[in-house]
UniProtKB/TrEMBL annotation:
E.C. number(s) listed in UniProt: 3.4.11.18
Catalysed reactions listed for this entry: Release of N-terminal amino acids, preferentially methionine, from peptides and arylamides
Residues annotated as binding a divalent metal cation 1: 233, 244, 370
Cofactor (UniProt): Co(2+); Zn(2+); Mn(2+); Fe(2+)
Keywords linked to the UniProt accession: Aminopeptidase, Hydrolase, Metal-binding, Protease, Transit peptide
Residues that hold substrate according to the record: 216, 314
Protein name (record): Methionine aminopeptidase
Binding positions for a divalent metal cation 2 per the UniProt entry: 244, 307, 339, 370
Organism: Asparagus officinalis (Garden asparagus)
Length: 386
């Protein structure tokens, strides 16, 4: 039986006629609303926002005591999508459904993790090496003089070259352990230290996150398969400064859904960088990323954030990639990362018992890309670009 068409205009007229404004005052309704942190809360507990996403609260109407409520409100308030956004969402849903019929991707399984690779004694090591405790987020913003900027440029340039080389290794049948070994050797040969190695007990020199792995994947003996996507996250410690970058690479014949996810993630990073300059608000970054991701129906992960980087690996400011009302403005000479993670499905995650490997809760694909930026008076220099 054919369903009758109902225009939005008729629905709007019906609501205005049958539910006057005075009723809203007696029976307020709100949908799911974002609850941004207060400035004091953000400054007092920044680690909360560095490690996890921000809370979402739901508010329901409550009748006053002793008063009868004649009207009953049962509305779901949601964001209104433009015609283009809705069309993209429908198309992506159909493509996901059709691709699952053709080939169902098996869930990610862990392989065997080998021991840490050695680092020569003459290589300068970060202060956290030798301890398995996860360092606290430093409150010191990374703002540099001319010498510091020169060292940050050198660290960023090396990280970019290593990542580019690692990307050339991506092909079916290679293991992430082989990629880790090659990355480790290239960093050591350049006189630098692979920053992830020993950070909070992390056992490898690079993070390799495959398919539904959002981030922090530990290299192991699993072979890459035709159609996989893999994020390789490289950080080097050179002459006392960290350069941090990552990119998601395609392995063999990758389907169109995965290609689009990777491309849009890169575009989100580019749009976020475009708003950066001295005096700009950090919350603009999350706005730009969310706007672009939502056009294609992708989720923006809230739990993992960008951060200050320089003489320390992770410091304030915390750079959120989702819409937020966080405080803070950029300062000339400051360095930090932007590293959005987009998903085909849920933004919720689960972490393996290794304490690092974090996957999408529904097994949907995730993609990430990252750059280290230097804020200038008129914009931002990408320090990790070849």
């Amino acid at each position: 039986m054919k369903k009758p068409k109902i225009s939005l205009g008729k629905v709007s007229n019906f609501i205005q006629t049958n539910f006057p404004r005075r009723m809203a005052a007696r029976c307020p309704v709100t949908g799911l609303s974002f609850a941004p942190p207060s400035s004091s809360s953000f400054r007092s507990h920044p680690e909360k926002y560095f490690l996890v996403g921000q809370p979402v609260k739901s508010t329901l109407p409550i009748a006053s005591a002793g008063k009868a409520t004649r009207e009953k409100c049962n509305f779901i308030v949601s964001k209104r999508l433009s015609g283009l956004e809705e069309a993209m969402r429908i198309r992506r849903s159909r493509e996901l459904r059709d691709s699952e019929k053709v080939k169902k991707r098996p869930p990610l399984r862990r392989g065997k993790v080998s021991g840490r690779l050695p680092v020569p004694d003459h290589i300068l090591k970060p202060p956290y090496v030798g301890s398995n405790l996860l360092p606290e987020l430093s409150k010191e913003h990374q703002i540099h003089d001319d010498e510091g900027i020169a060292r940050m440029r050198a660290a960023g340039e090396l990280a970019a070259r290593v990542l580019e080389f690692a990307g050339t290794m991506v092909r079916p049948s290679i293991t992430t352990n082989e990629i880790d070994k090659a990355v480790h050797n290239m960093i050591i040969d350049a006189g630098a230290y692979p920053s992830p190695l020993g950070y909070g007990g992390f056992p490898k020199s690079v993070c390799t996150s495959v398919n539904e792995c959002m981030c922090h994947g530990i290299p192991d003996t699993r072979q890459l398969q035709d159609g996989d996507i893999i994020n390789i996250d490289v950080t080097v410690y050179l002459n006392g400064y960290h350069g941090d970058t990552s990119k998601t690479f395609l392995c063999g014949n990758v389907n169109e859904n995965a290609k689009r996810l990777v491309k849009v993630t890169e575009e989100c990073l580019e749009r976020a960088i475009s708003v950066c300059k001295d005096g700009a608000s950090f919350k603009k970054i999350g706005k730009r990323i969310s706007e672009h991701a939502e056009r294609f129906g992708f989720g923006v992960v809230e739990r993992f954030v960008g951060h200050g980087v320089g003489t320390v690996f992770h410091s304030e400011p915390i750079v959120m990639h989702n819409r937020n009302d966080g405080p803070g403005r950029m300062v000339e000479g400051q360095t930090f990362t932007i590293e959005p993670i987009l998903t085909l499905g849920t933004i919720e995650c689960v972490t393996w018992d290794d304490g690092w490997t974090t996957l999408t809760a529904d097994g949907s694909l995730a993609a990430q890309c990252e750059h280290t930026l230097l804020i200038t008076r008129t914009g931002a220099d990408i320090l990790t670009k070849c």
